[in-house]
Amino acid sequence: MGGDHAPEEAVKGALSAASLINGEILLVGIPEQIEEHLPHNRPDNIHIIPASEVVDMHEKPLEALRKKKDSSISVAAKLVKEGRADVFVSAGNTGACTAASLLSWRQVTGVKRPAIATIFPSHTSHFLLLDAGASPDVEPENLLEFAVMGRSYAEKVMGRKDPKVHLINIGEEPGKGNAFAKQAHDMLAGHDWFAGNIEGKDIFSKDCDVVVCDAFVGNVVLKTAEGVGEFIMGEFKAAVPSGPLKLFFLPIRKALAPLKKKFDYAEVGGSPLLGLNGICIICHGRSSAKAIHNAILQGAKSAEANLVNAIRTSIEEEHAGKNQ
Asked: How sure is the predictor about 257, in pLDDT bands with cuts at 50, 70 and 90?
């Protein structure tokens, strides 16, 4: 029920993804509103789970969850806790999704802070950045947790072999940055998968697998990248004249089509919330049916790859290495 275009786009996305997953899709929310967008001959693996309340985008997460015990977000998180679902996908209130998942599932043992991981396009392919919004106030050692979790996702879901980790900083040299960045660098430097510092201007042009930072920096990077992308595409559209002259720009538009697709957030789906005993895919508030479709496939792939256990094992190995 969450998101700017709910529940219509969520239902459309579920319908298009239904035949592509080995399992069921549970649409959680107000049944009458969901039924409006379901055909009579809907797929056999789509079911409705009733939830009578909705957390609005502007509401304070914890306050909303306390007041609305039967919200679609609370019910969906509970389904995962009870083992009735493997993945929780939502385009609703990000804070509420994060809080409901954390309260219901708790952190993987050894993980102090969860992290939202966002997939970005780059010159070579894609890279994973975390944290993009879950934990703005962290200690340097938490970035080591983010690195370990990010490597698990990059390997199991993105198919990267022995993924490398970069740390966002104001310079590439080890001594660069504030005290927080220097301490984080020192903690990461003892691992052979650590590829060093990387500047913000280089994350899109260099070959990266995983990039770590605190959520404040990560969210600024995310929103800035979105803004710049929309600005460039908007300026291009504004530059194209109307009328007959528009035909002369068609070849350019066709040439830019692959680029537009590469920068389309809907192609990825959503951002996984890592570090909890469950899988949550957080989608953009304005997610289209295409974005929901891809988020469902992304979540299914994460579940099939046993992502939570992979993270749990990686964290255990990291702590075992520290104690040797």
From this structure: low
Q: Which residue, chain included where needed, has tokens 């708790």?
A: 106
Q: How confident is the model at residue 132 (pLDDT cuts 50, 70, 90)?
A: very high
Greater model confidence, 234 or 260? 234
Q: Between helices 179-188 and 140-156, what is the axis angle to 10°?
A: 50
Would you list the DSSP string of 216-273?
HHHHHHHHHHHHHHHHHHHHHHHHSPSGGGGGGGHHHHHHHHHHHHHT-GGGT--EEE
DSSP letters spanning 128-165: EEE-SSS-SS--HHHHHHHHHHHHHHHHHTS--SS--E
Element housing 215 (H / E): helix 215-239
Q: What is the pTM of this model?
A: 0.90
Equal CATH topology for 8-111+275-307 and 137-265:
yes
Structural domain spans, the chain = 8-111+275-307, 137-265
Do residues 131 and 162 make contact, with C-beta atoms less than 8 angstroms apart?
no
* Superfamily covering domain 137-265: Isopropylmalate Dehydrogenase (3.40.718.10)
CATH topology for 8-111+275-307?
A: Isopropylmalate Dehydrogenase (3.40.718)
Average pLDDT on 181-202 reads 94
Residue 197 has pLDDT above 80, yes or no: yes
Average pLDDT over residues 63-70: 95
User: Residue 265 — φ and ψ, nearest 5°?
Assistant: -60, -25
